[in-house]
Design brief:
The chain has 149 residues and is of the alpha+beta class. The protein has one domain: Aminopeptidase, CATH 3.40.630. 27% of the residues lie in helices and 33% in strands. The protein has three helices and eight strands. Strands 1, 2, 3, 4, 5, 6, 7 and 8 form an eight-stranded mixed sheet that branches. Strand 3 and strand 4 form a beta hairpin. The longest helix is centred in the first third of the chain and has 18 residues.
């Protein structure tokens, strides 16, 4: 596995370069790779902490961490993304471990809720997440709600 440097910052603390890199990475994966036209900037980023994973100077993974009562009643992890160039190296798993740990450090221990793409259900189950509802479409991609108690 590549050595990744993890940095967690609130939106207000991100530099212009960090913000550009995270929006670029999310666009590369969610818009271009997944061929999904959607508005990624949904006004939630500015209320979040952002976990950034760097391989040297290159941002290769990130999530946004939402406090309870931001999107859900529970704390949440969203916009989970890993660069195509760095997949298959265990970075996605470490990204989730780091994200869960950071949620607990920032918001205390409690339930974490996510809206997961259905094809990643087994991936999230490895971290203790369980499906809590029916499949729904978000931006023409099948999703499910999952929680980790």
């Amino acid at each position: 596995m590549a050595t990744i440097n993890w940095v967690c910052k609130h939106f207000d603390s991100l530099t212009n370069h960090e913000l550009y890199a995270l929006l670029r990475l999310r666009s590369d994966v969610f818009v271009v790779e997944q061929n999904c036209v959607f508005l990624d900037m949904d006004n939630n980023d500015k209320n979040c902490f952002h976990l950034l994973g760097y391989d040297g100077d290159l941002l290769v993974a990130c999530t946004r961490l939402l406090a309870p009562n931001t999107v859900y009643q529970e704390m949440s992890i969203g916009r989970v993304v890993n660069a195509v160039s760095h997949r298959g190296k265990g970075i996605g798993k470490e990204l989730m471990r780091q994200s869960i740990q950071q949620c607990h450090q920032l918001f205390g221990y409690g339930t974490i809720k996510i809206g997961a793409q259905l094809y990643l259900k087994r991936f999230y189950e490895r971290f203790g997440f369980e499906q809590t509802g029916d499949i729904y479409l978000e931006d023409d991609i099948e999703h499910i709600k999952m929680i980790k108690k």
